[in-house]
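Aim 2, interim progress: modelling of the nicotinamide-adenine-dinucleotide-bound target.
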Amino acid sequence: MTGRLQDDVALVTGAGDGIGRAIALRYAEEGARVAVAEINGPKGRATVEQIVAAGGKGLLIEADVRRSSEHSRLIDRVLTQWGRLDVACNNAGISGAMVPSGVMTDTQWQEVIDLNLTGVFYGVRAQVNAMLQSGGGAIVNIASILGAAGFETTAAYTAAKHGVVGLTKTVALEYGPQGVRVNAVGPTFTHTSWIDALPADAQKVLVARHPLRRFGKVEEVAALVAFLSSTEAAYITGAYYPIDGGYLAQ
Ligand SMILES: NC(=O)c1ccc[n+]([C@@H]2O[C@H](COP(=O)([O-])OP(=O)(O)OC[C@H]3O[C@@H](n4cnc5c(N)ncnc54)[C@H](O)[C@@H]3O)[C@@H](O)[C@H]2O)c1
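Predicted structure of the complex, ligand included:
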């Protein structure tokens, strides 16, 4: 059976853990060759090993996606290895310090914006140019429910994720005519080390805010990302898809 991304070349940032790893594994399961762009070498290597163990093709590229120059290096490496780029997912992100805006320091603001917004812009810019060389492609940016709603103590994160949604819409308008689709996905609180680090009572309060009364699963986010990256979503661009157990319906 052929997958929905059979023989495509895909790139996932921050694919050494959590949601990014699940996306990389799902892309590989769908038949894509997957470049794992990761700042943490051992974590990235573990993802590639999982892809290969399942019979797929993976490539680790150690990179810090906060830096503009790293993105040209990433694309060059992918093109040298596989000759094209069809699919990219800008996933790497951090939660940052949770403090009220009035006491958020310049550094706390900047470190979140640098990775969660500027890093995504650098990624999209490089990826669009690579995709134009082979007639188009699909980009999925990982935003958050906080790309559509506010949440106390997360000013930088929420601003960055709203920014990612706006960036997604604009790039979709610019490059749709040339065959590049760009969409954003907005997960709610999803089972990763972020959630595990929260105290049990805080987890309970958060779960209660979701009509489906549980956190999301990384595989569920990966399934949506795989769909949006595939030709099944050929007529979808510039869209923001929450995957949130009903959180934003309230
Ligand atoms: N987990 C959640 O509840 C949740 C909810 C909504 C949105 N998100 C978003 O999903 C994305 C992934 O989150 P996660 O929970 O899977 O995170 P995670 O911490 O589990 O994994 C993030 C990965 O990114 C890598 N990374 C960090 N900085 C990097 C950099 N500068 N360059 C390259 N790689 C880097 C890390 O080493 C790690 O492997 C983020 O954009 C996050 O904002 C997560």
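The first strand starts at residue 9 and ends at 13. The beta strands are 9-13, 33-38, 57-62, 87-90, 137-142, 180-187, 240-243.
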